[in-house]
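Changelog note: in this version the structure field was regenerated for every chain. One regenerated record is shown below for reference.
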Amino acid sequence: MSKVYLKRGREDSLLRFHPWVFSGAIAQTVGHPAEGDLVGVFASDGSLLGCGHYQIGSIAVRMLGFGCETLGDGFWTESIDAALRVREAAGLVDNPSTNCFRLVHGEGDGLPGLIIDWYDGVCVMQAHSVGMFRAKKQICEALLKVFGDRLKAVYDKSSGTAPFKAGLELVDGYLYRCEGFNDDEQVVLENGNRFIVNWTEGQKTGFFLDQRDNRAAVGRYAAGRRVLNLFCYTGGFSVYALAAGAESVDSVDSSAKAMSLVDRNVELAGAADRHHSYCCDAIDFLKEAPEDKYDLIIVDPPAFAKHRGALDNALRAYRRLNAAAISKVAPGGLVFTFSCSQAVDKEAFALAVFSAAAQTGRRVRILDRMNQPADHSVSIYHPEGEYLKGLLLYVE
């Protein structure tokens, strides 16, 4: 097994259990590790720090264990079982009103580079590193050990997340299916609301589970309101608003495939008479919308900044978008606005929204601050894992 030795003084972050080793911190690599190999990591004095997956790039090692040079035989099973216990503590396992949740959230669960979402017995995994992609068979075996007969299928959806330059055969497909299970979608429950999840054709793993608590918050405010859901994807916020008694809901997204699922989800909710779908650019729709038509607007765009280099452009986009929403919402209306860009921290996002509000000249109050739910856990040693942030605004 290859070994990585750090420069003097660069071991401090690992001693505090931060899961990344940056390439600039490495003094010497002994051996010739291939991308995805397990390597031992040592301080400059030769003391063992831990082990992790080696990769090409600014993050050179993603740590899987501390104080050990290799992983034990039961590593994958023990790690997934530990992640499941966290979801049990959060009240998400065997919950009669919610049967979908994030099972593994990368660094938050000590498994950097791995995402697994649970959809009522179907696990959809995404590898964000070569090491995790190469370990997918072991991960599938561990899922079978942890869940047993409760596991219907394991679907690998890493083609859009694993490093494409690594020479991997990135073809999505099933790693496991129990006898008789042939579906590529199914209906799941979230806080009692029903949604169709298609993991083969949908974005990410099929559903944006990270907005579960924030969708419930929209439901608490939606009764009697005229709602506009921008960047609606498959209509999660729309269904919650309709179920809570919204007067009307307009859903907008540029994806025809997503809008088809929105209509199906609204039909499931039995609320098609109060809903309209618009397959078009959300920003253009908002610009053309009449003032005061909506008294609750949801602004949940895709990540405008996927890396630090795009930060300035992203903040300008957040300012423009939020200024438009604040200017259009009816007096006494609410704006739920979000950013899922990890490169945009809470302070920068709040400042962008503040600037947008000031631009409109309207009086705006912050009623609530929102973030990601418990199953998208953040390791206290890796604060970078806190990516989702949101504000609930009251606009006079």
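Spot check on this record: The longest strand covers residues 59-66. The chain is about 25% helix and 30% strand.
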